[in-house]
């Protein structure tokens, strides 16, 4: 095993997450997937094991870890079930706007409950007419005395309905375009805040995905994160920090699929010998393993850049998400191929890994958007270096 320079605490976190994934998640993942059932008992176990504390600062009840610690846990959980993993990681995503731009009072109010796992968080940006175009959101927030009044809809929100704390981007000044967006904290149970039906998804089916509905939803003005007009910056900085986590999810999915494929290939006998003895299969396994390791290295590097506050984190976060998710789709497709006809059947886990991998190319910015982000950053760097 490669030494990635983890601290003793990070190794302990990894081993704990791995143990939970293998002992508690693997036995129930097929049932959770089939039923599309939110893994409440596992989430409670993760909370009781203090794994929600890894991405929260110590002063707010956390362990003081950062993006790398979160990636370590997410990868291990994703090896077993990406639906469980994203239910965990989405709480970190919902917390990031608060962690990056929230006031000390807001952090003291909300973060200890997130750290303990008593409350889950979620992030609300995507809308029916605004996905990759984050600047095109239509949900509004108008100031009314000491309150803001929210109206609009957010769709495809992970942990929707299950989370108690939501960070939401809404327009406070339509005339300013993207500069007119602001970020808010909305508590579950607030009058005028409701949820749509749970989506019936292709993959990550154990996670809850619902619409957020705001109808004259009144929240205290103190729930504004940062100041008015910072919403787009909050969203983009959030994704810069969170995208290595999507990369880690993709790496975990791919590693889980490879492990299952290798296990099957050494047991499946054709023409009187295990299929792992055929060069064609060995070459597929070699390519899968190599690309997984390359993606893992990039993810950990991007996470460390995020934790260091590096100026070029945006480019490498996008690279980690892009490369890892494309890799995961390729590796899981090849895992199904190694399983042959059995890989297409629900009886074996290969097809689930393939279904789960697809979303990593889509959410938190499609891979087409990531390529644009990376390309623009590379061009900017070239211009700066040529001066």
Description:
The protein starts with 7 loop residues before the first helix and ends with a helix. The strands form three sheets. Strands 1-4-5-8 form a four-stranded mixed beta sheet. Helix 5 (82-101) packs antiparallel against helix 6, helix 5 packs antiparallel against helix 7 and helix 8 packs antiparallel against helix 9 (313-339). By secondary structure, the protein is α+β, with helices and mostly antiparallel strands. The chain has three domains: 8-119, Acyl-CoA dehydrogenase/oxidase, N-terminal domain (Butyryl-Coa Dehydrogenase, subunit A, domain 1), CATH 1.10.540.10; 122-229, Butyryl-CoA Dehydrogenase, subunit A, domain 2, CATH 2.40.110.10; 232-382, Butyryl-CoA Dehydrogenase, subunit A, domain 3, CATH 1.20.140. It has eleven helices and ten strands.
Topology at a glance:
Layout: H1 8-25, H2 29-35, H3 40-48, H4 67-80, H5 82-101, H6 104-116, E1 121-124, E2 140-144, E3 147-158, E4 165-171, E5 181-187, E6 193-198, E7 209-220, E8 224-225, H7 231-267, E9 269-270, E10 273-274, H8 279-308, H9 313-339, H10 350-358, H11 367-385
Parallel strand pairs: 1-4
Antiparallel strand pairs: 2-3, 3-7, 4-5, 5-8, 6-7, 9-10
Helix pairs in contact: 1-4, 4-5, 4-7, 5-6, 5-7, 7-8, 7-9, 7-10, 8-9, 9-10, 9-11
């Amino acid at each position: 095993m490669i030494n990635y320079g983890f601290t003793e605490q990070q190794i302990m976190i990894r081993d704990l997450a791995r143990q939970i994934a293998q002992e508690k998640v693997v036995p129930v993942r097929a049932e959770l997937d089939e039923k599309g059932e939110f893994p409440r008992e596992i989430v409670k176990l993760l909370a009781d094991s203090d794994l929600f504390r890894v991405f929260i600062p110590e002063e707010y009840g956390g362990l003081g870890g950062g993006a790398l610690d979160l990636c370590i846990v997410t990868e291990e959980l994703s090896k077993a079930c990406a639906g469980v993993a994203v239910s965990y990681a989405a709480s970190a995503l919902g917390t990031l706007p608060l962690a990056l731009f929230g006031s000390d009072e807001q952090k003291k109010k909300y973060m200890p409950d997130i750290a303990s796992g008593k409350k889950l968080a979620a992030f609300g940006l995507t809308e029916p007419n605004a996905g990759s175009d984050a600047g095109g959101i239509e949900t509004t927030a108008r100031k009314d005395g000491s309150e803001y009044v929210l109206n609009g809809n957010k769709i495809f929100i992970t942990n929707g309905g299950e989370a108690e704390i939501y960070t939401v981007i809404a327009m406070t000044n339509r005339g300013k375009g993207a500069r007119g967006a602001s970020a808010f904290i909305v508590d579950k149970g607030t009058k005028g805040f409701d949820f749509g039906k749970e989506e019936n998804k292709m993959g990550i089916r154990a996670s809850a995905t619902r619409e957020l509905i705001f109808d004259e939803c009144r929240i205290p003005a103190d729930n504004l994160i940062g100041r008015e007009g910072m919403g787009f910056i909050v969203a983009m900085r959030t994704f810069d920090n969170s995208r290595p986590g999507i990369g880690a999810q993709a790496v975990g999915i791919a590693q889980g699929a490879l492990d299952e494929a290798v296990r099957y290939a050494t047991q499946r006998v054709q023409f009187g010998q295990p299929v792992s003895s055929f060069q064609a299969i060995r070459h597929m396994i070699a390519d899968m393993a190599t690309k997984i390791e390359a993606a893992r290295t990039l993810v950990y590097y991007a996470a460390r850049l995020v934790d260091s506050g590096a100026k070029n984190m945006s480019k490498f976060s996008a690279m980690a998400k892009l490369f890892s998710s494309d890799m995961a789709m390729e590796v899981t497709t090849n895992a199904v191929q190694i399983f042959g006809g059995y890989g297409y059947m629900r009886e074996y886990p290969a097809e689930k890994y393939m279904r789960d991998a697809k979303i990593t190319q889509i959410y938190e910015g499609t891979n087409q958007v990531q390529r644009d982000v990376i390309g623009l950053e590379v061009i900017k760097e070239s211009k700066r270096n040529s001066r």
